[in-house]
Amino acid sequence: SITFRSRQVGCEPKFAPVVVAPYTVTMSGSGYDRHITIFSPDGRLYQIEYAFKAARAPGLTSVAVRGDNSAVVITQKKVVDKLVDPDSVTHVFNITDKIGCVMTGLLTDSRAQVQRARQEASEFKFKYGYSIPCAVLAQRVADINQVYTQHAQMRTLGCHMILISVDDEAGPQVYKVDPAGLFYGYKATAAGVKEQEASNFLEKQFKEGEETKRDTTATVQLAIECLQTVLSADFKPQEVEVAVVEGTGKFKKLTDDQVEAHLTAIAERD
User: Fold this and answer.
1) What is the pTM of this model?
2) b/e string for 227-240 if b means 16 or more Cβ within 10 A?
3) What is the pLDDT of residues 119-129, one digit of tens each?
4) Burial class (CB in 10 A: 0-12, 13-18, 19+), 260
5) What pairing do the DSSP bridges indicate for beta strands 183-185 and 2-4?
């Protein structure tokens, strides 16, 4: 407590004592989450962990699957308000003609990261004269994310980026970049609130030592079936976004009619 008094020579105090309550700081990270650059005694960066939680906050789940000659992404589509035009709501973006991504997490952060990825891809093509490979783009985005964990004036982005493409030399590619700047190539992966459940489902489909041939149709249907299983729901075409890149073609989103055809095929098969 602090007491302030006003004193004058030969006079009584004009102001009554003022008592100020002591200032206390209470934080979930015991103070170690006040800055992104501070490690806790057990080696944790709480702000990075909060970024991962922020990426799950919207409650969406995304899945990506790599086939023999194609790569597919699927995510939920939630329209927050009845007055919002559904065509303006998307989590699937193209980076170049042949590289696309699905973003899972805060939409504002997602759009900022997509814009930076497009800039990096454009600068690479201008400098070297050919389109940026998916692996190089994933590494570049991951490097940028990692820098955000080192400087106090920056904020880690609360989103996951899953990139897909078909490389001229390496074939179908799936890469996931997380808020901490870690990235890997995957046969199949997931992100979002049901990430662990989706990963468990996909692991059963990609058993070690077993090589299953999957064309584009089978790859798309596996991704849809995975999302349906982990969410325990049957989708309408308007409730999901599906995008695919195959062969030497371009990254493209499937129309509602195309998604409906795949949903019908899955239902008839089951």
Assistant:
1) 0.85
2) bbebbeeebebeeb
3) 999 999 999 99
4) middle
5) unpaired
